[in-house]
Design brief:
heterodimer, A: about 90 residues, mainly beta, 5-stranded mixed sheet, 1 helix, 5 strands, B: alpha+beta, Aldehyde Ferredoxin Oxidoreductase,  A, domain 1, Aldehyde Ferredoxin Oxidoreductase Protein, subunit A, domain 2, Aldehyde Ferredoxin Oxidoreductase Protein, subunit A, domain 3, 3 domains, 6-stranded mixed sheet, 25 helices
Chain lengths: ~90, ~625
């Protein structure tokens, strides 16, 4: 199969439920998703969470806290954490 | 006369004098309920008015109060909570804790809104309450029993498996200063050592069975709220999946995961000790509290290398962090075992974990050695050593006998600078939320009458972006403030939003059940039938906080007790928060502003004007004080 140069595949783990159903999503479990090449971390979060993005706290890429304007690379592992509350 | 004007309450408070083995019932007027609501609101005026100053917290004059809120036991999610209070043997201040489970709801159905225990029994007893009938029974055969066997023995003796218990383990009997009281084996009123107070009274348990829920003003509203929560909780409360602790990796990245006795905020081994990791490997089931579909409690079972008995539930976030990252331990089995030891014996997992991490730092820095520990290499990361020391604590043997006094008193004994490693406020060990990240929480820890309490604290991180600002605007909270900021506007937030954070502990409502503030207001009105407002609810909280503060003032507490541990004035050693500290001057300024917002003076003494405004001018009589002795 030809590689689609406009698409990248990343692994996402979200601790916030997406507003719309996403195939493979399970709370706090990684799932694979395709995104347009050049997408930023914030863009990915917006696409996945939609209105629920207002619950978003810190984001990490490959285990490190990342800034929202970071451009994602193929194979990146992204963690979307909810705002940190109690326990 | 039954108080027919009350809805949502029974109108009856049970009094038990263990000196004389006298049982009586008081029926306060409706005005009392309206003024104090319940829970913490009942506890503060009771302790202030009915106890002389400076009593021995483990003596006969201390009073142990179990208090329900108006929502406790009402048939909708989150209503399984009750409060417990007394003068704390750990802090010597106002002591208070909350617990979930089924016991509180059962007590409401059994016909009482609160129980006030005074005196000391001359022999072990347990209290048996069934549908308004009350009996003190011999507990000689239960004394010394661990929590689960004692609970099961009571059910068997009384012939009813639906009986609920609030019970202490051997730790409470041994007067360990951070002993707790457990509802239904696993739901702990953990903080401030109230299990030791119960043990000092030789009261092993309070067993309850009831069948009559008080009438509500508008049952349909409550039924609708229950239906709404059942349909929506999965989207709004992530704790249903793994319990608390599901975001520990995020906490670690942010610098909010106490590590190595709060020296750091991020832990290399965090992936191994998260709630998911524990659930994936050891979970037997999720379970919950009265009328709650969220079921956020995990039950774990492990066979090897330690047997972990599932009857004692499983570790939640505070426990995972206190015995995990904060002791440098990435072995989830050791943490599960530590949790089991705590519930089996009845001690608070937060105070226990932080006291062990204190001892570990003392060991690492040469203030304790193997001779002191009985040969245990009590180093960070040594799970086996942590468990051995925990066993010493619950047995009050060796160094454990000293640590059973809590980290503050242990440090006082060890000396040589160890006081800097004792991470507490007023003697209450700090929970698993770092004040360097959550600076409003730090302010709250410092000024709260009970010490470092997180249940009623403000989580600054929730307010950085404010997804609920639209809703919270009803209580005038609508400004985004960085979590690491400590400023006048943060003091306002801790005051204004803090009152709302305290409220569930007055209502008998769980803070983890995600109701909106409007839904909470509606629930109180629907249960009690009283016209309610945010203002009125928050004034009730203010009344409770102020009375608890006066209790402490009378005990001789001053501004010098409203301190955070010096550790938080230093930076974590690395990670996201490196370089961020709590500035003592900013903290002092924020405290003064907070006090003034509450109508207290700059020394934190409530003013006459505010007492009059809160309609508790009677409390002025308790503001005479002399320095405390601990």
């Amino acid at each position: 199969m030809m590689e689609n140069k406009d698409i990248i595949t990343v692994m996402v783990r979200s601790f916030i439920p997406p507003q719309e159903s996403i195939k493979g999503y399970e709370l706090g479990r990684p799932f694979k998703i395709e995104m347009p090449r050049g997408i930023t971390l914030e863009g990915l979060a917006q696409r996945i969470l939609s209105k629920n993005i207002n619950q978003l706290g810190i984001m990490a890429v490959n285990g490190e806290v990342a800034k929202k304007n970071l451009v994602l690379a193929p194979g990146d592992k992204i963690d979307l954490y909810a705002l940190l509350d109690g326990g | 006369m039954e108080n027919k004007t009350l809805l949502g309450y029974n109108g009856r408070i049970l009094r038990v004098n263990l000196n004389e083995r006298e049982i009586s019932v008081e029926e306060p007027p409706a005005d009392y309920y309206q003024r104090y609501l319940g829970g913490r609101g009942f506890i503060a005026p009771t302790l202030l008015q009915e106890m002389p100053a400076k009593v021995d917290p483990l003596g006969p004059d201390n009073q142990l109060v179990f208090a329900l809120g108006p929502l406790t036991g009402m048939p909708f999610p989150g209503s399984g909570r009750n409060s417990v209070g007394a003068k704390s043997p750990l802090t010597f201040a106002f002591g208070e804790a909350e617990a979930g489970g089924f016991w509180g709801a059962e007590l409401k159905r059994a016909g009482f809104d609160a129980i006030i225990i005074s005196g000391i029994s001359n022999a072990p007893v347990f209290l048996w309450i069934q549908d308004g009938q009350v009996e003190l029974r011999d507990a000689g055969h239960l004394w010394g029993m661990e929590v689960a066997p004692a609970h099961l023995a009571i059910q068997k003796e009384l012939g009813d498996q639906q009986i609920r218990t609030a019970i202490i383990g051997p730790a409470g009997e041994k007067l360990i200063r951070f002993a707790c009281i457990l509802n239904d084996i696993t739901h702990a009123a953990g903080r401030t050592g109230l299990g030791a107070v119960m043990g000092s009274k030789k009261l092993k348990a309070i067993a309850v069975r009831g069948r009559n829920t008080p009438q509500m003003a508008d049952p349909k509203v409550i039924a609708d709220l229950g239906r709404w929560m059942s349909q929506n909780f999965k989207e709004k409360a992530a704790v249903w999946k793994y319990g608390t602790g599901h975001m520990m990796e995020g906490y670690s990245l942010a610098g909010n995961l106490p590590t190595l006795n709060f020296q750091d905020g991020g832990f290399e081994g965090v992936k191994k000790i998260t709630a998911q990791a524990v659930c994936d490997q050891f979970r037997v089931e999720m379970y919950g509290c009265y009328a709650c579909p969220i079921r956020c409690k995990k039950r774990v079972k492990v066979d090897s290398p330690y047997f972990v008995d599932p009857i004692y539930g499983g570790p939640e976030y505070e426990t995972l962090a206190a015995f995990g990252s904060n002791c440098g331990i990435s072995d989830p089995i050791a943490i599960c075992k530590a949790h089991e030891i705590c519930n089996r014996n009845g001690i608070d997992t937060i105070s226990a974990g932080v006291t062990v991490s204190f001892a570990m730092e003392c060991f690492e820095k040469g203030l304790l050695n193997a001779k002191d520990t009985g040969g245990i290499e009590l180093r960070f990361g040594n799970g086996e050593a942590m468990l051995q020391m925990l066993e010493q604590i619950v047995q009050k043997q060796g160094l454990g006998a000293l640590l059973a006094e809590g980290s503050r008193l242990a440090a006082k004994q060890i000396g040589r600078g160890s006081e800097e490693f004792a991470i507490h406020v007023k003697g209450l060990e700090v929970p698993m939320h770092d004040p360097r990240l959550k600076q409003g929480m730090g302010l709250h820890y410092s000024v709260h009458p009970a010490g470092a309490d997180h249940v009623s604290g403000v989580h600054d991180t929730l307010l950085e972006k404010g997804p609920q600002f639209e809703e919270w605007s009803a209580i005038d909270v609508n400004e985004s403030i960085p979590s690491t900021e400590l400023s006048p506007r943060k003091a306002r937030l801790v005051y204004q939003f803090g009152l709302w954070r305290h409220l569930p502990n007055y209502l008998g409502l769980c803070v983890l059940v995600p109701y909106s503030s409007k839904q909470i207001l509606d629930a109180v009105e629907a249960v009690t039938g009283w016209p309610m407002s945010y203002w009125r609810l928050m004034k009730t909280v203010e009344r409770g906080i102020t009375l608890a503060k006066i209790f402490n003032v009378r005990e001789g507490f001053t501004l010098t007790d409203d301190l955070l541990p010096p550790r938080f004035s230093a930076s974590q050693r690395g990670g996201n928060l490196k370089g961020v500290t709590v500035d003592p001057d900013q903290l002092s300024e924020a405290q003064k502003l907070y006090f003034q917002m509450l109508g207290w003076d700059e020394q934190g003494i409530p003013t006459r004007a505010r007492l009059v405004e809160l309609d508790i001018a009677w409390a002025l009589a308790y503001l005479n004080f002399s320095p405390k002795k601990i």
